[in-house]
From TrEMBL:
The protein, known as: Probable beta-d-xylosidase 6
Domain Glycoside hydrolase family 3 C-terminal: 382-558
GO biological process: arabinan catabolic process; xylan catabolic process
Residue span(s) of domain Glycoside hydrolase family 3 N-terminal: 78-335
Keyword line: Glycosidase, Hydrolase, Signal
Keyword Signal: yes
Residues covered by region (Disordered): 14-37
Length: 563
């Protein structure tokens, strides 16, 4: 079904027109049956108005990911460039790099949309403050510093959305909405800053992200938690904001009128607000903030939530309306915000190949240029934490053999959370083989949890026969991810014993490589003279094995300490 702009113009004009409560409102162009169906992430079609179904939920945190239903790798495009996880890219402290990565992700997203494999509205970036180092989703964020998170948000959103300006049709529809040209301009794609706000917990004892109440002072809220979101909207011009599961000072974020209205009145936000998935349901079911499901739907909608990721609004909107808890003006406001963003995205411009982005195709996904950029991003993010007696870099012409030990030494799954299908992932083992002919490998632990030491004997045998030894230790998604927090900052299971034992039998000082998004206490390794160097590689993405090898052999000089 083609999108019909001629039908959308009068629809938006109606939705944006002020209604005097003392008068009888004119009927909405959408029926009461159609209204709730438009306020779900899986929005239904309205055939009589020429509006096809639309899936609002696509993901693009550090590359196109299939976490949401809007993205599919079942088509001409089978994979997409896997850039480093955000916490590693943030460690580069390079705004131009962040912008370049977001632009590359956007090009691949737009190309996949043209092939029917992605939407145009992507729910990224995650700009929450990494307050607790045990938080499982801290890896998705730019870190604990509000200034860095703010800068990252601005660069990502500006580049991802394209910063294009609107045409006469858009201005005609939106001219009475008191928006400036920058906010009402054409969008290549829509970025969404999440999770608003003070969200930094998955599971801890009796508390979960669904029932957690963040108690935050007004000053801390302004200086710390809100700063990235304010920059995201005021400077980045984000067209979407996602409200979080948790409550803030006793009020669920998606039902918090003061918070959600502030972004429009004080920050001039002109996009749409989506709930996190099932966050409207948690208002009633987990937080017990309302007495009925209808009250939860009404609280979210009237606070400023425009769309529900999930089916809660779809299930309870009709009864909430019939009970007088939801007014037509509340629904109209939400519809206006949603259709306005779709208009700016060009969804009503006709055939996609006729617009300025229509020439993007499969050749723009997993391109050589993007894969080189992913490699550069990984190189710039990796941090050298220790380098005693200038152990690094190694000279490949004088290295006879090298052993790489650890459960992730030969893994190509180095992307972290919200990773899609990478183009051509390379393990650390493969990367090292590009520099040295004799490379030996042993797991040392069967997996990252490392609950047994039975594989230690093989690892020690391999270590004894190599000139140089690298141990890859740290975290993966079994330890930290969405819905999973850590309880300790130590290496999992027997990993510390593995590192110490291998260091004791190595001919030369050990090289320790740490994976993971959250901090790890490796003070034992810092103090151990048998461990000569420590490198943190975070989640380096599909080119991580190559990037690490380039650093070990001096092809690239990492940050912090200089060779």
């Amino acid at each position: 079904m083609p999108w019909a702009p001629s039908q959308l113009v009068p629809l938006l004009q109606h939705l944006s027109s002020p209604q005097n409560p003392s008068t009888i409102p004119h009927p909405s162009p959408l029926s009461r049956r159609e209204n709730p169906a438009a306020l779900s992430n899986n929005a239904s079609a309205v055939p009589r108005l020429g509006i096809p179904p639309y899936q609002w939920w696509s993901e693009s945190l550090h590359g196109i990911a299939a976490n949401g239903p809007g993205v599919s790798f079942d088509g001409p495009v089978k994979s997409a460039t896997g850039f480093p996880q955000v916490i590693l890219s943030a460690a580069a402290f390079n705004r131009s790099l962040w912008s370049a990565v977001a632009s590359a992700i956007a090009a691949e997203a737009k190309a996949m949309h043209g092939l029917g494999q992605a939407g145009l509205t992507f729910w990224a970036p995650n700009i929450n403050i990494f307050r607790d180092p045990r938080w499982g989703r801290g890896q998705e964020t730019p870190g604990e510093d509000p200034m860095v998170a703010s800068a990252f948000a601005v660069e990502y959103v500006r580049a991802f959305q394209g910063e294009y300006h609107g045409d006469a049709l858009q201005r005609r529809v939106l001219r009475d909405n008191n928006s400036d040209d920058d906010d009402d301009g054409r969008l290549m794609l829509s970025a969404c800053c999440k999770h608003f706000t003070a969200y930094d917990l998955e599971k801890w004892g009796q508390f979960t992200r669904y029932n957690f109440n963040a108690v935050v002072t007004e000053q801390d809220m302004s200086d710390t938690y809100q700063a990235p979101f304010r920059s995201c909207i005021e400077q980045g011009k984000a067209s979407c904001l996602m409200c979080s599961y948790n409550a803030v000072n006793g009020i669920p974020a998606c039902a918090n009128h003061n918070l959600l209205q502030k972004v429009r009145t004080d920050w001039n936000f002109r996009g749409y607000v989506t709930s996190d998935c099932d966050a409207v349901a948690t208002i009633y079911e987990d937080q017990k903030f309302t007495k009925t499901p209808e009250d939860a739907v009404a609280a979210a909608l009237r606070a400023g939530t425009d769309i529900n990721c999930g089916t809660y609004m779809l299930r309870y909107m009709k009864s909430a309306y019939e009970q007088g808890k939801v007014l037509e003006k509340d629904i109209d406001r939400a519809l206006f915000n949603l259709f306005s963003v779709q208009l700016r995205l060009g969804l009503f411009d006709g055939e996609p190949e006729r617009n300025q982005f229509g020439k993007l195709g499969p050749q723009d996904v997993c391109s050589q240029e993007h894969r080189k950029l992913a490699l550069e991003a990984a190189r710039q993010g990796i941090v050298l934490l220790k380098n005693e007696k200038n152990l690094l870099p190694l000279d490949k012409y004088f290295v006879s053999s090298i052993a790489v030990i650890g459960p992730l030494a030969n893994s190509t799954n180095l992307g972290g959370g919200y990773t899609g299908v990478p183009c051509d992932p390379r393990s650390i083992l493969e990367g090292l083989k590009g520099y040295v002919n004799n490379v030996y490998q042993a797991a040392g632990c069967r997996d990252v949890p490392c609950n047994s030491s039975v594989d230690l004997v093989e690892a020690l045998s391999v270590a004894k026969h190599a000139e140089y030894v690298i141990v890859v230790a740290g975290l993966d998604l079994s330890q930290e991810t969405e819905d999973r927090d850590r309880y300790s900052l130590l290496l999992p299971g027997y990993q510390m014993e593995l590192v110490t034992a291998v260091a004791a039998v190595s001919r030369k000082p050990l090289m320790l490589v740490l994976t993971g998004g959250g901090p790890i206490d490796v003070s034992f390794a810092v103090e151990d003279p048998r461990i000569g160097s420590i490198l943190w590689i975070g989640y380096p993405g599909e080119t991580g094995g190559t990037a690490l090898s380039d650093i070990i052999f001096g092809y690239y000089n990492p940050g912090l300490y200089k060779f």
